[in-house]
Task: structure prediction
Amino acid sequence: MASVTLSGLTRFGIGGEARQFIQTDDECVLMATLRAERGPWTLIGGGTNIIASDHGFEGLVLRYTGARIQQTGVTVSVQAGAVLQDLVDYTVAHGLRGLETMTGIPGSVGGAIYGNAGAYGHSIMEFVTRVRFFDGAGVQEFSNAQCQFRYRDSVFKRHKDWIILAAELDLTEGDPKELAAIANGIRKIRDEKYPPTMKCAGSIFKNLILAELPLSVQGVVPASVVREGKVPSAWFLDQVGAKGLKLGGIHVADYHANLIFNAGGGTAQQVLTLIADLKKRVQSRFGFTLEEEVQYVGFEEPAILEKA
Result:
């Protein structure tokens, strides 16, 4: 086991040193390590949705890289360490319809299930039939219903000590050329919005479900911005002047109010301060609090809440 700098493991390019780091593609090694660990630990995948503390993490950082993908008919079994894009590419090439709209979403399959990732009106929950995970004592298996999927959420977010190991997805047959055309079109749009070289975590805040917003807010949201019953957080952020804001090396994109990126030399403290400012602006104007999609590593929970 060796120490590691978290800035090198996260797409944001931010974060101090972690005490220990282990990377493995072996489930048994992963579980044995967790059983033996007596101090704090955290698991990361692709590091694409993480804000790591400038002070690092006083514990063990684990990365699981098991990436096997297998097909039986229209059913695909995949290990959680697989890159989500690799799974999307596999299904497209094999004429399996369902995941093509998720092309370009960074991160691992485990992370996608953890946060119920999705795009263009679809989420991974629509296709997951079973999830294998380690609960600290042994390996368990949940059905789709037991995963308690909701918009950008799952039961695994509420049990951060449960580690997703693998999943099974049921897809449908499709034409590989048609699926590739859809995926390529979406990839072009996504790469323009979130360039692969940009140091960011994608969208910072979750979009909002219109029906769950206060009636006073529902009345001011233009029908033209509502998609599948959801209102982009970017619309609210745009109304409070978020675009183009800067705090040191941390910037809000001037073309997308829900995109915060590290332009160079940015710190986690600057990210937290800017996020808190944006949340307060929306709270003051509209009377509700935005919720982050990103996950935090190395912070005390109360400190994060105080910043907000």
